[in-house]
Write a structure and sequence with these properties.
This protein is an alpha/beta fold. Helices cover about 30% and strands about 30% of the residues. The chain binds S-adenosyl-L-homocysteine.
């Protein structure tokens, strides 16, 4: 597609574009040439009319242009997406070659130079999210090249995400190519087996971003009594049990998730392990355990995103502090706290300060043993630090 227009930058706003930050905010635009429609390809020019970059436009979004190329000779067409996706897939070579794992992210949107596009592999199925209007426009071409490039039984769309609203797009779910996935698709992760509900599960079905961290956490679980809070389908529980945990209590508000968690234990031959599945609110249940004097040796806290906007960061931090403060009180001396935050707006620095605040109020000395981040198939592009969202600490609570 030829650019249907161009946007001219406000003087002094070229630097992030030149540094290859993929977002151009509407406030950085001084004028628009031509009549680009929403979702169209536009050129980005400096004050003097010099070409800087090319991307897709949406007047309804604060992020008016998402940049795709900085090369004036590169046309945005099916070949462009074919090549960009092929590069992204090739970067997962090591994961693809690992027979112990067959579920991972193939395309991580901006961080893989493909703004708005998520592609996950779940064994024989591919699951996509088209998060923006500009990328939604290329759905047909993208699906064709995914079908061509990768062996799969089917490609399924899970664009049922709130961010699409900001783009003026409705949520969309359904088969895009090939067969519709069964209600549960079995995947392997580091040799463990999991049932994934691609069609209705959270995100695209599984929290792939925690893959590497599950290995780290499992290393501390031997012979311990484990509380797996915000367990979802029990991924941490399976790793913990396989790592020799004495007992595991899973807590989640989703009954469906816990049902799959139970099945996942069985799938791994761990049905006979001492495990419990508690449906409820973690905030309330941690308090109940404290009142009852129930104690654990290791606690995993992997809550959902608490902060979606800057104005929610303060409340989010209060939430993180509360659950971490409670967890510290439930830990036996020298117990292990594995605590996570997936709110991108809460930095690793701020998160650590919140955990410190919790330790002060709990009256416990706390040592950091390991600092964790998102799995390697969810890379952080240096030019796009906003792509860093998952952080975790493995702590010893003295
Ligand atoms: N640890 C999981 C992912 C957790 S995602 C894994 O490795 O797969 C967050 C989970 O928290 C979701 O399953 C969601 O159902 C649950 N949840 C959200 N708010 C909750 C609350 N207040 N109490 C209990 N569970 C909650």
């Amino acid at each position: 597609m030829r650019p249907t227009g161009a946007v001219r930058l406000v003087k002094g706003r070229e630097k992030p574009v030149k540094n290859r930050h993929p977002w151009l905010f509407s406030g950085a635009i001084s004028g628009i040439e031509g009549q680009p429609g929403d979702g169209d390809i536009v050129d980005v020019m400096d004050q003097q009319g010099q070409f800087l970059a090319r991307g897709y436009y949406n007047s309804h979004s604060q992020i008016a242009v998402r940049l795709l190329t900085w090369n004036p000779d590169e046309e945005i067409n099916a070949d462009f997406f074919q090549e960009a996706i092929a590069h992204s897939v090739a970067r997962r070579q090591a994961l693809a070659a690992d027979a112990r794992t067959d579920a991972y992210r193939l395309v991580h949107a901006e961080s893989d130079l493909l703004p708005g596009l998520i592609v996950d592999r779940y064994s024989g199925y591919l699951v996509t999210q088209f998060l923006t209007l500009g990328i939604d426009r290329w759905k047909r071409e993208i699906v064709a090249c995914l079908a061509d490039m990768l062996f799969s039984e089917g490609i399924y769309e899970r664009s049922d995400v709130d961010v699409r609203e900001k783009e003026g797009l409705p949520p969309v779910v359904g088969a895009l190519w090939g067969g519709t996935p069964p209600d549960r698709v079995e995947i392997r992760e580091n040799g463990h087996r999991f049932a994934v509900d691609i069609k209705a599960g959270q995100k695209t079905g599984f929290y792939l971003d925690q893959r590497d961290n599950r290995v780290r956490v499992a290393a501390y679980c031997g012979n311990r009594e484990v509380l797996n809070a915000f367990s979802y389908t029990g991924a941490f529980a399976v790793y913990a049990a396989a790592g020799g945990a004495k007992r595991i209590v899973n807590v989640d508000s989703s009954a469906e998730a816990l049902e799959i968690a139970r099945d996942n234990m069985a799938l791994n031959g761990l049905a006979d392990r001492d495990s419990e599945y508690v449906i409820g609110d973690v905030f309330a249940i941690l308090r109940r355990y404290r009142e009852r004097g129930q104690r654990f040796d290791l606690i995993i806290l992997d809550p959902p995103k608490f902060a979606y906007t800057r104005s929610q960061v303060e409340a989010a931090c209060r939430g993180y502090k509360d659950i971490n403060w409670l967890a510290m009180q439930l830990l036996r001396p020298n117990g292990i706290l594995c605590t996570f935050s997936c709110s991108g707006l809460v930095s690793a620095d701020l998160f650590q300060k919140v955990i410190f605040g919790a330790s002060v109020d709990a009256g416990r000395d706390v040592q950091i043993l390991e600092k964790l981040s998102q799995a390697t198939d969810h890379p952080v592009l240096l030019s796009f630090p906003e792509g860093e969202y998952l952080k975790g600490l493995i702590c010893r609570v003295l």
